[in-house]
Amino acid sequence: MASLTNFMNDWASISRSSDDGDLPVVSPEINGVSYFPPELDAGGDPSGGGHGSGTERRDENVISKRLVFEGSKIAALKAMVCEEVENPTRVQILTAFIYKAVLSAKYSATGSRPATSLLQLINVRRRVEPPLPETLTGNIITFFIASSTAAEQREMELCNMVGDMKTSFEEFCKTFPRNYRDEAWSSLHKLHAKESMETWRNPGERSVYTCTSWCRFPMYEADFGWGKPEWITVPEAPWKNMILLMDAKNGDGIEAMVSLDKEEMAAFEQNQELLSFCELKTAAQMLSPIA
């Protein structure tokens, strides 16, 4: 925690040193341990990678591609599922749509349909009761199994995948985030985290994918004295079998960074249904903003 504390203090000092005085005073609370004690740890986190995990560290056989979804295309996808699924979120729709294409690519590249699980990372700041302070810093996140498929299961319909993700999320929110001050909460957290971590760390014959969403984070509002950013992205998704979602600057579109095995990516980027809803950026375009 020392390095994080020093970094955040330096960041706050920079924010306060603006000559024009227009930037707000930043007073981050670096005391997450008082809310979530270390004994709640279940043995790791899904961003760490590791031997045998579904999200192994990047190697030369892993390729990342950036997908750009315009707001109109996301609305079209929502229209395709809204009769079957009530009020799904943009993140649920795109996650399911990309996950469906990923599973199709897996089958095309390997000729088999292994059992799969999708782990969804979630920011619990606004979901726990009582609410956490807005100024609390750190990775206040957890994860849950958003969707699973059985071995050799035929490809699921998009509406079914979205429905599964929405149901899993609602069940998670009913049980996990409530009253984290209660003594029983720590036992619930440990059990939940252990079950999800076992899926991630010891997948066996199962293929495990991870999705994280940075949508609705106010990154385009950041101004350190040089104006607000024109475009924000990451150079590549850091791990194999990773899906990362970010808002486009206009607030309607979403960019997705997808990281897969080279052979699976070759099949993924030829998926015509996928390409009909997004623009796929090549490696040469990875650091070129949306036109």
TrEMBL record:
Keywords: Acyltransferase, Transferase. Belongs to the plant acyltransferase family. Residues 36-59 are annotated as: Disordered. InterPro entries: CAT-like_dom_sf (IPR023213). One of its GO terms (molecular function) is acyltransferase activity. It comes from Cucurbita maxima (Pumpkin). This is Vinorine synthase-like. Gene3D superfamilies: Chloramphenicol acetyltransferase-like domain.
